[in-house]
Amino acid sequence: MAELVKIALDAMGGDNAPAEIVKGAVEGVKKEQESFIYLVGREQQIKAELAKYTYPEDRIKIVDAADVIQTGEPPVMAIRRKKDSSMVKALMLVKNKEADAFISAGSSGAILVGGQTIVGRIKGVERPPMAPLIPTAKGPAILVDSGANVDARASFLVQWAKMGALYMEHVVGIKNPRVAIVNVGVEEEKGNNLVKETYPLLKACSDINFIGSIEARDIPNGDADVIVCDAFVGNVILKLYEGLAKTLIGKIKGSLTKSLQTKIGALLIKKSLKGLDATEYGGAPLIGLNGLVVKTHGNAKHKEIRNAISQCVAYKKGDINEKIMQAISNENFE
Amino acid sequence: MAELVKIALDAMGGDNAPAEIVKGAVEGVKKEQESFIYLVGREQQIKAELAKYTYPEDRIKIVDAADVIQTGEPPVMAIRRKKDSSMVKALMLVKNKEADAFISAGSSGAILVGGQTIVGRIKGVERPPMAPLIPTAKGPAILVDSGANVDARASFLVQWAKMGALYMEHVVGIKNPRVAIVNVGVEEEKGNNLVKETYPLLKACSDINFIGSIEARDIPNGDADVIVCDAFVGNVILKLYEGLAKTLIGKIKGSLTKSLQTKIGALLIKKSLKGLDATEYGGAPLIGLNGLVVKTHGNAKHKEIRNAISQCVAYKKGDINEKIMQAISNENFE
């Protein structure tokens, strides 16, 4: 039997914890034969949920944690003080090499802080990016960075481009992924100071398939697989995607049900928009740490948790962290 | 009879020039009884188009210009060298106080450069913003800046907030418009350096209704009327709006016509999405110059030109430039 990929799952994080998290763990461990799950959180609650299912008991283990970090808590303080929280205890499993990856639907801020301070960065990685997959007309694209570093330097963006490309190639399975930097035009002289400084550095990278600038209008069409930008811009892209889809769908649904007096239209739309959901690829990875840290949506249900488990297995089996170390050390030799 | 609002219209700019531009001028001059239009461009071509219509001949005058600035031309060079182009000649009419406003569907870069170098800034205005209206679920919102200043300073953003609020109140007719700064969260400590620096300055402005930060996800829902951000972020918002709407609509239309084998669905959608078009408010104003400069879409048709003419009349009749001067000089006294 191959070595198991060990995943520390924060059973108490998110709106639907622990029920949906536990359900996702059971589904994930069944789907991924090479996975082993630590369910970290309040033992009695987790036990009660687990009792609803049959599952390979040798591959799920409960780790008791009395405390829970809430969404509204100041992240730095929460991570520092709540040593007995499900999140901190799960992150400690990764730090101590007892687990390869961490998944949580809890506070984004706490995951960011905890990932960086407890799990720690791969040597040479300047700033680990939060890198969600966003849906496009041609499949998912990775957005690096979308949440971690709002005032970025050119050298950060170059590393994000490399890490994003490795992720898309080896976890998502896109051969030779197209890397582009978000810009206000496609001409090489366009951009703000950060983009103007980063562009030639990306162009000089021999280990990525840099295709130049991408305007935001071409992102939904799938014109690049790896979208590079600072986290302020990335956050705007991610959130506008969400908000605009919601408003448009609401508008269309309202119009259709009103006019046709039927739900057929709404059902068709729901079906056609299914491809615009990227949760089938799991959660947003925080890349560049000594272990994979995955943040799912706060309202994640069992499917997203199950998919995040598959994501962690693919990441570990793809030796992504070793590939990142290699890419970063090559950089230092250049 | 009230004093006429004189508008210099670049008859040769854009994909549909001069036919649609001239048609728009005829419609505009009929609709706006207080408007006077200079149609600037190749006289013979304009005359041939005008001959198709009846219109108040005392309120349309052709100004001959032999040359045309093309979209691909480097803007600074084009404005400097093509003295006999329709765009430069039309801008000169504003500079020389023969016209109050300028409209063009031509090169955005040339309009930006020409507006600033030929028409010139209102005294005290640091950087005039390009300020398009974007559609939201609750009506249009103004996006300042979306194209002119990619590396902005806090003091620019404060002026944009004031100018955007004046525009929304007196041209679009929104009482006490809600001003918000684009941010990665709504908590006051969030943001990149620019936002952190700008936020307290906006909060201290007594002459605007500052409601704090807005996340990009809440823009389409219409949670603010004046959206303040640097032009890099503004461009991303504007372009992503465009791209995402296009992709979503394409996806839904494809699914509907395929499934229902009918065009009813597509027609309904088209109708329901009509409210998501902001061209009924004219083009994007470049605010803060000694005269209004309006950039319409490159593919603008007669309706957008007609609406831009109404926009120029409302701007002039609302004494917006006088109000801006007042707001800026108050700032200097503070």
Q: How would you describe what is shown here?
A:
The structure is a homodimer of 334-residue chains. Chain A has 334 residues and is an alpha/beta fold. Chain A is built from eleven helices and eleven strands. A six-stranded mixed sheet of chain A has the order 3-2-1-4-11-10, sandwiched between helices. In chain A, helix 7 (193-203) links the parallel strand 7 and strand 8. In chain A, helix 1 crosses helix 10. The longest helix of chain A is centred in the last third of the chain and has 30 residues, at 231-260. Chain A starts with a strand and ends with a helix. The mean pLDDT of chain A is 91. Chains A and B meet through helix 8 and helix 9 of A and helix 8 and helix 9 of B.
Which helices and strands occur, and which strands form pairs?
The structure is a homodimer of 334-residue chains.
Chain A: E1 5-10, H1 19-31, E2 35-41, H2 43-50, E3 60-64, H3 75-81, H4 86-95, E4 101-104, H5 108-119, E5 133-136, E6 139-144, H6 154-172, E7 178-182, H7 193-203, E8 209-214, E9 226-228, H8 231-260, H9 264-273, E10 284-286, E11 292-295, H10 302-317, H11 320-333
Parallel strand pairs in A: 1-2, 1-4, 2-3, 4-11, 6-9, 7-8, 7-9
Antiparallel strand pairs in A: 5-6, 10-11
Any descriptors?
homodimer, 334 residues, alpha/beta, 6-stranded mixed sheet, 5-stranded mixed sheet, 11 helices, globular
What's the quick description here?
With 334 residues, the first copy, chain A, is of the alpha/beta class. Chain A has helices at residues 19-31, 43-50, 75-81, 86-95, 108-119, 154-172, 193-203, 231-260, 264-273, 302-317, 320-333; strands spanning 5-10, 35-41, 60-64, 101-104, 133-136, 139-144, 178-182, 209-214, 226-228, 284-286, 292-295.
